[in-house]
């Protein structure tokens, strides 16, 4: 078609009656079609038509098609928009309907309705000129000033939006390229307008009139946008985006007052935060970072996830105790008294702690080794740490490291991660609020390792006095001075502490307690504490020492006092019930006596009522105070004893011996059992043994085989070749626990010697020691814990390697007095001590036959 020539729409148009939305020329609308007439139109005209003409329909706004075919056609709006059906989508759900996409071409006026069924068709007159968009100049001349004014507003509106958004940039291009006469219709459909306003624009057939009507709409839109930008200044970018993407929804949105207030509040908060940052005593480097961040925060829209992140970060920075510390009040004499008052026994530990504190007092400098308390659970490691903080007048914070296998647990996550947070050290400092607390690093031996890095390496930096004055948490990303923090570590064993970490620490062994110590601890500390926790007084409950001893020997088997404490707690709970019941019964008669007034009478009747329902079986008199906890009461409360003295029972046949083992939970006694059967000389070992233990078993057998004649050891058929036609099975009970270490050597030898000689090992002997192939006994570790375990189990004689004699000094005198120690340097001595009446050695005849 030649440029400038007008395009004509057909003079007869099928009519689509729409109820919602007004289609204006130049814009596109999606409309749902479900009424019978409209459906017919789509089916027979749009879906069956083949020419372009057949896709042109007349859209009449503001009329809904009647729901049934036979209903009369309603009165139709006079002016409509000729439209091109661009897309038809059909669906059966929830009921049959089509969705039409139509693009408006030009206005038309209905001249005459030609038919109503199956869909209305009308003779129409085209009202707008429809031209190819090439000759703008002509239209500009015609429209003059009004058009200029309109154009100005349109440009102003578009410029208020963010040009970097593609949709806005496209709109801007449209403004420049479309003929101006098309703009009022297009802009009206884009900006926020009501259907009524759109209808008015549709009815404005004259172009001049249309311009006049659209200008106020544009102005209103611009004003709304201005207001929005003013109230949401910091979040400008964001809003522009929202407005640009959904122009007809948001542009006219005027923020409500409550939202206004909230924003102001937030703004105030940020100002406050800035003030706090400036007045806080953080390091220069930190201050610089914080000021930079707050500058960013001010510009950031609140809805951005980073806003909350940055804010949290700044709040943490303000809260951290950069320069806040407690004043040390250290006086060694007071410290000694306090430590003694809080803890019974553990003399060596207390002595070392006092030395440590004394050095602190003399030399006002915290550089020095980190103390690490190593010992079984429940021996008071944590509570000594707490006492140290108390003596120094410092805050105390415990950091549990058990199972930590990610270094960011110590050093924090970088802030780029979602959910990032500072590490435990910085978190701890925030919690205590001072920069010189006592940090107890609990269970350093249970640090794990994983793909996320080695937490032990991170701890090295924390504990190294040369480095920790500028410890940099990944989250903070600025250095924090940890040099004033007093670190104390605890562990159950040094074996699993990474060597580099171990190197930074001074190990103080905290061994388990003897029975006597436990009784003292129970009566001096644990029982009073439990009574207080349960609201009881010594007048109400009495636990004699024999009962405590019973609890210790029959209900617990531990190096520390934790389960003893728990059992005492259980007793107190049971007694509390009795006492409360007793009080209940005692108070009732009192109330009845006093109860003369109305109120009291009511109470009494209520009380008697409840009792008559619930209390028939419980008519026993209130227990007499104090309630005495004897063995029967114990059995009642704690159930039957868990550990019986079973030692002598188990040693009633040959092939059993008692060894002593060391575990991170303290010392333990261990029964080693052996049996022999017909076979081919095989050795079977059971009970989850490590390699070293298996080697010890082989060593023991080899030594016994080579010395069988000397000791008159024979197999079942009387041969000195012990493995001839014989299999041996060695078992170490408690098969679920992995056991390893060389110290069972002597026990295996004794057990096998008993098996092959048919003699019983003394039932009160326990032993420990490594053996060599030549029959020497080598020293082993953990003697103190092992001796305590043997003592706990009621054994009387302990065979230890000669070279472990020095370790006996550490053992309390009363324990030593109860026990007899046999110091053995070779297996002969072990066997002699282990069997009643010694283990006879056949004299070596060859020695007499000297050839000299
Ligand atoms: P650990 O840290 O060694 O596992 P805890 O310090 O938690 O053990 O001690 C457990 C409980 O035993 C605490 O209530 C503690 O007060 C008490 N306790 C341990 N040893 C003693 C002691 N020597 N004197 C007084 N109470 C003790």
From TrEMBL:
The keyword Nucleotide-binding applies. PROSITE patterns: LON_N, LON_PROTEOLYTIC, LON_SER. The keyword Hydrolase applies. One of its GO terms (biological process) is protein quality control for misfolded or incompletely synthesized proteins. Residues 13-222 form the Lon N-terminal domain. Its main location: other. GO terms for cellular component: peroxisomal matrix. It is an enzyme of class 3 (hydrolase). The active site is at 743, 786. Its EC number is 3.4.21.-. ATP binds at residues 375-382. Residues 651-837 form the Lon proteolytic domain. Residues 586-613 are annotated as: Disordered. GO terms for molecular function: ATP binding; ATP hydrolysis activity; ATP-dependent peptidase activity; serine-type endopeptidase activity. Pfam families: AAA, Lon_C, Lon_lid, LON_substr_bdg. Keywords: Acetylation, ATP-binding, Hydrolase, Nucleotide-binding, Peroxisome, Protease, Serine protease. SUPFAM superfamilies: P-loop containing nucleoside triphosphate hydrolases (SSF52540), PUA domain-like (SSF88697), Ribosomal protein S5 domain 2-like (SSF54211). Residues 586-612 have a biased composition (Basic and acidic residues). It is found in: Peroxisome matrix. HAMAP family: lonp2_euk. Interacts with PEX5. Interacts with TYSND1. May interact with enzymes involved in beta-oxidation of fatty acids, including ACOX1/AOX. NCBIfam families: lon. Belongs to the peptidase S16 family. This is Lon protease homolog. It comes from Chroicocephalus maculipennis (Brown-hooded gull).
